[in-house]
Amino acid sequence: MSITVKVRVPGTTANCGPGFDAVGIACTIYSELELFLSDEGTLRIEIEGEGKGRIPTDSNNIIYQAVQAVLDRVGKHYQGIYLKLYNKIPLARGLGSSAAAIVGGLIAANHATGNTLTQEEIFSMATIIEGHPDNVAPAIFGGITISVMQDTQPVHLRFMPEKMLNMVVAIPEFNLSTHTARQVLPDTITMKDAVFNISRVALLIGALCKGEFHHLQYALEDKVHQPYRQELVPGMQQVFDAAVAKGAYGAALSGAGPCLIAFTDSNCDRIGKAMVQAFSKCDVKAEYISLSIDIEGAKVIE
Ligand SMILES: Nc1ncnc2c1ncn2[C@@H]1O[C@H](COP(=O)(O)OP(=O)(O)O)[C@@H](O)[C@H]1O
Ligand SMILES: N[C@@H](CCOP(=O)(O)O)C(=O)O
């Protein structure tokens, strides 16, 4: 017997300034994957697009590991596992490629085996594999998500802003793995910095929810991770300033970086070009893309 499933998963921008490991937004950039399960054959992985030639095509591949985690959990075994990946989300740039890969593998395998796992169970498994919930939540549920770890269980709240919001992402040429960008973070922060972030993340969620985007100028400020990661992304502050100078409400590091993301409701091209130019003045080659909020999250498309 053989089964085929095709899944589409959005890229995500996590943290959004002060919401470290908690806030995430699903973006209108997508990777797709096809999963074929069969009683005969072996493991085979083919890649088109981002990461071709770089991503492992053996049992070290995280999509394969996600598929296998579902098969183990539901007690099914397949000799032949064939994965065809169509990767559009840039790798190790802060747009949640690993979360999309994990979520895609889990959802494809769950669908192929009769949808026995709930979305919440998928969310829990994805969080364990990814290590933090803020990318996998919007990748699964779409929209803007707030995630909280309750002991080992992730809990989420999803919402859409009252008004349309666009995001302009400046994508530098270089990669920065999330693992590396987490290693520069301190173990502890001061009470002053904690209060700085708590107040801003509350303002951020209120501003996004109500569509009062003028608050984003302050609501995107952060003292928990961005100051420490600044050394890894040359030109970070200059790019933020360039985006705001061209009319963006505010800007932040996308996930762990190195992408920088500006929030706006107009002038995306003007903002994007200014961000790329500011990067270039710091000897960083970059390009930009304009995105909006994905409302659906991951979905089975075939
Ligand atoms: N489609 C994919 N298939 C397999 N592995 C992937 C895929 N996309 C991403 N990865 C893995 O995730 C890593 C990037 O994850 P990470 O450093 O968290 O950055 P980000 O999630 O921001 O792109 C890649 O180096 C690769 O190992
Ligand atoms: N909260 C995480 C988010 C990482 O996002 P990614 O898209 O860079 O993987 C962090 O800041 O480490």
Automatic annotation (TrEMBL):
Q: Which InterPro entries match?
A: GHMP_kinase_C_dom, GHMP_kinase_C_sf, GHMP_kinase_N_dom, GHMP_knse_ATP-bd_CS, Homoserine_kinase, Ribosomal_Su5_D2-typ_SF, Ribsml_uS5_D2-typ_fold_subgr
Which Pfam families does the protein's record reference?
A: GHMP_kinases_C, GHMP_kinases_N
PROSITE patterns listed in its UniProt record? GHMP_KINASES_ATP
Q: Which residues form the GHMP kinase N-terminal domain?
A: 61-143
Listed under GO cellular component are: cytoplasm
Q: Which UniProt keywords apply?
A: Amino-acid biosynthesis, ATP-binding, Cytoplasm, Kinase, Nucleotide-binding, Threonine biosynthesis, Transferase
Where is ATP annotated to bind? P90, L91, A92, R93, G94, L95, G96, S97, S98, A99, A100
Catalytic reaction list: L-homoserine + ATP = O-phospho-L-homoserine + ADP + H(+)
Q: Primary place of residence?
A: cytoplasm
Q: Which residues form a coiled coil?
A: none
Task: Give GO BP annotations, semicolon-separated.
Answer: threonine biosynthetic process
Q: What is its EC number?
A: 2.7.1.39
Q: Per its UniProt entry, what is the enzyme's top EC class, as one word?
A: transferase
Q: What pathway does this protein act in?
A: Amino-acid biosynthesis; L-threonine biosynthesis; L-threonine from L-aspartate: step 4/5
Sequence similarity: Belongs to the GHMP kinase family. Homoserine kinase subfamily.
Q: Which NCBIfam families match?
A: PRK01212.1-4 (NF002288), thrB (TIGR00191)
Name of the protein this chain belongs to: Homoserine kinase
Q: State the encoding gene.
A: thrB
